[in-house]
Amino acid sequence: MGSVNRFRRAGRRSVISFIKVLPIVIGVLGLASLLAAALPAGALARFLPMEGTFGPLLGAVVGGVAAGHPLTSYVLAGEFGSAGIGLATITAFIVSWVTVGLVHIPIESATLGMRFALWRNAISFASAVIIGYLAAIVMPLL
Question: Which of 7, 20, 93, 101 is the most buried (most CB within 10 A)?
Fold first, then answer.
């Protein structure tokens, strides 16, 4: 009987927490959708360098700001490749696009804490840059 009451209390707290966070979630999703609609793939390609040492870094910055859905990353990667953008830049952009989300920080900090949100985004950003450089090194070897 005690575990049933604890389960009900936990369920009630979860629902209350969800209701409190719901306006933030809706706002973040709306902002991300507006950003994705305002920046089509062709416009994003103009911000990214074709090749170069700083390509992955810039790709990760643009991807982190323009955070999007993983399914659209395949289309973007194809368009960027056909535009002549380098593999390292494309890889860093896509990894950052999916894992870093500056527009998602408000909801993430509200649910998990600001410190966690900032650390997770910083680690994801650094990982995106490193993975971009590694992809450029490893892919020619395969």
Answer: 93
In Å, how far are 20, 21, 103, 105, 134 from 111, measured between CA atoms?
Answer: 10, 8, 14, 10, 33
- φ, ψ dihedrals at 141, nearest 5°: -80, -20
Kindly tell me if the per-residue pLDDT of 131 is higher than 80.
Answer: yes
| Amino acid in the structure at residue 56 | P
Is the separation of the CB atoms in 74 and 90 below 8 Å? no
Which residue from 117, 90, 112 is spatially nearest to 102, judged by alpha carbons? 117
Map residue 35 onto helix, strand or coil.
Answer: helix
CB 81 within 8 A of CB 46: no
CB distance 98 to 125 below 8 Å: no
* 82-107 pLDDT tens trace: 878 888 999 999 999 889 988 888 88
How do the domains of the chain map onto residue ranges?
Answer: 27-141
Task: Show the tokens assigned to 1.
Answer: 């009987």
